[in-house]
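Input chain follows. Return structure tokens only.
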Amino acid sequence: MQSMEKAQYRFHRAVPTIVLLVTVFFWLTSSAMAQNTYYISKSLGSDSNTSTQAQSKSTPWAHLPGMPSCTGKCASYTPVAGDSFILYGGDTWGNSDLGVNWQWSGSSSSPIYVGVDQTWSSCGSTFCRPIFNCGVAACSANSNDYFYVSANYVTFDNIEMTGLYKNESAYGPDSYFFINGTYVEVEDMYFHGWTLGPEGDNGGFAAWFGYTGGNPLTGTKLHDSVFDGSDTAQNSLYGVWGGVEQLYNNYFRYLVADIVGLVNIEHDNTGEYMVTSASGDHCNLFYAEGPLSGTNLLVYNNLVRNTSSGCAGGVHFFLNGYDSANPAYITYFFNNVGVNLYPANITDPAPSSGNGNWGTYYVFNNTMECGNDSSTAACIGAPGSTTTVTQITSQNNFWITSSTPACVTSGGQTCTESSSLTETVSAANSNGYTSSQTYAFSPTSASAPTVGAGANLQSMCSTVSGINAGAGTACQSDTTYGVGYNTTAHTVNTPSRTPNQRPSSGAWDIGAYQYVATGTPNPPTGLSAVVQ
């Protein structure tokens, strides 16, 4: 501090007073524009409070900047990089407050945050989310999107979103989030309570609509959120439509699809009880149309289960299913689990129609009941007659099916199978693998036929690590079994299962699980080897 004081003294002696006054003015101006935390409460706040007052929980604004109902000092404030906007938990912002036109960007080092302080809510010691609810009607502004985000480096966190209404005609976007920016992150949300409008077409009706028309959506993430249509007519919403770079740690149920769009990474998601839409769209679970950017698609540690006849014609995992043919595409599909599924279209590489080559697929260490206990089908489907792939390499998979072979070589694809195990449901049951286990079809003893019977694929994991470090770490462990769902707090529990490390040398187990005897400590995870 002494050196700073001396520098200030020398500066004071060296310049005229008028210059010093100008410098102080600009310093005060920049301080006024510095990043701050602003509090927002519909029940406690007033938009006439100054921006300084709104930095106190006792004098918040009533509305968030960008809300059509934001007036006064709230409306005159321009958010800057690093700002935080804290919504009062338990308050509800309704139709006149939505949709929010969010057009202010943060930066890579100072994103803008819109979310919560879990010590500030009307629920006392038990935190409750702020609520956005258009009341099953068209929102008052910005079409019918709760948030229209045309900005970069913004995080939205921990809001309950309900009452979305499909108001647009076919394929018109009606969404909780319309994303038209980069490095936008949406996390810890609870989406529910949506309603399909009278036109009956659910195209573009989604919790997240990622606009890909000339927008790369670089750095976008949707994670740790619950999408629960159990309180709806169960006939309409998509989780993601369009595109998102990373989709992870989410719980989906009673949707038409978890995702239909472009994506680079899908991991640690759970999807179940998918439905057919009112307009006849069959259910799809993870329908990756292709990579959002680059040529790699990583799909791992996901759990799909409990699909019924409503999934007839639908796809549980579609890998590069629609976008455009590209022989440079490489897909890595591992540590995924499927149980009690409609017996068709379990894992489909490339589209059912469309000319061209759709690249290379590595499918390894998955455990799939390719149907349900009563009926099974092929585990890897064949593309259409005009579609080709370079190669499908299937290794270390546990296929529970009566269809032989599980990996089909036909329809313009070459599918090689090695170090895998294919068993009927009854054979799997007799070996201790059942759909009713806490972790379905996991080995129960060291003598189970999947244990120690697989190839060591550490070299594959090294390749995956070069694409994404987190995926590489996951590749060296077994499955997390998706995520769980706390139906009281409407939050995800991550992970569902603590993964076991796969050995760096020696045989791996077949399937998504690596057996560890009860009472045997797990080896450390997250380690990496350096080859010199």
